[in-house]
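1st attempt posting a full record on here, be nice pls
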Amino acid sequence: MQKKTSIKQWIALTAMGLGVFMGLLDVTVVNVALPTMAKDFDTTFTNLQWVLNAYTLVYAVTLLIASKLGDMFGRKKIFVASMFLFVIASAVNGMATNLLVLDIGRGVQAIGGSGMMSLSMALVASNFEGKQRGLALGILGSIMGISTASGPLIGGFLVENFGWSSIFYVNVPVGIIAVIMTIIYVKETPSYGKGQRIDLGGMVLSAGGIFAIIYGLIVKESHPHLDWTSFQIMGWLLLGVVLMIIFVIVEQHVKQPMVDLSMFKRAHFIGIILVAFVLGSAMYAYNAYLTALMQNYIGYSAVQTGLRQLVMSAWSLILGPVVGILGARYSKKWMIITSLFIGGAGFIWMAQAVGPAVSFKAIWPGMVLIGITNGMVNPLLNTTGMEGVIPSEMGMASGLLNVFRQLGTTVGVVGLGLVQDSKYEAYLSNHLGSVKMPAQALAGLKKALIDAGPFSGHGIAFSERLSRAPFAKAFQQVVVNAYDKGFSAVSLTAAGIVIVGGIGAVILLKNHVEGIDLTDKKN
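the predicted structure (as tokens):
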């Protein structure tokens, strides 16, 4: 007979939700603070890239390590330690007087964020039972979805009113409250690593492989005109692949491996990590391009952009608990598949709606459809990802889902960026020649636009000096059209990703309607 859920369990969920919210919010919230940071540190956006990249890299690299340590020694212990580290690093970041301190602080902060994120799902699964587990995981999925999408709104409000340091300082009181609540109310899981040796080789190889792959993609993102075959990119990617191959070989011969590779023999689990990758590469990566459209081209401020994006992000808050309840009664497989196809329709709408006179009125229906997808898939991914996983491997299963979601986001940002750059540059090459202006000026401006890229091209075309030129209107029209072509291509690419992901889910996912299998037997 299922026990009644107590108020203490819901307080425990609140504590874990706060940790997840802070960890994921800090992936995106810094973006809107970069202009203010550049002014205060008297530096360029290029030099500020590592404020973002340090978090992305370290976060991805440490997800699996934190998951394994939690499985072995108690997830609550590692979760609390991670949260404490996150709070300390946030305080240091807020006080940073130079970029080196801030970059290092962001890396340390990412270690804490990865620990909170990787263990939250497994902790929720072990603190709730039966139908209430599905509801709790659904709520956690809502928090994941809305934390990522609300970065521009929260970050914009804090930066405009309290300065860039406030985006870090706000984590301190919230984190302290969450630590206290976790210590008091969250139930510890068994230490499955008693008497086991830590697989240091597996940890080093997995961390090195993930680092090399993501670093190679970051280099490509920062230097889009570098060829894939260049040593700076291909060298890192090949190193990552080689290290991951060695990792797989080593794990097959270790008595107590970091990752039980038999998890990848289950088609259902492969389907789940595929959906996680799709969610990152289409949904999360697309947010950067949507924010650029609304701020750089439509002209909204960070706060105005965030407020309008509520039509997309609010669905995570609304649908999470509902999906958790429905998932206990209906096929989660087909709910995920249907949601992905809804997202595909939303991206197609966005591709058709964008144009020279684009406004929020034209794009909000597409944003709603995309938001519904994110609001449904995230909670379902959490619940379905835990099905059939034995208790000792729940932390690792959660870590793998988050690694593939983060890897998908990085691949998506790079891939969508290359699509946009290609269409943008092709349109400029084919149409700038029709603008009546001196050939030397045309060549110089074309090079400046391509070097700046689609995000910054608008600022060049509509600069005060250029706007006074007799050819300004025709030139600006070409730049806007080039951006529109690129953004439409990005939207259609994202649509293709989620549709292919939906087809993959049809083939791989199983109809798990029953609850999570908590027996400690291999499936």
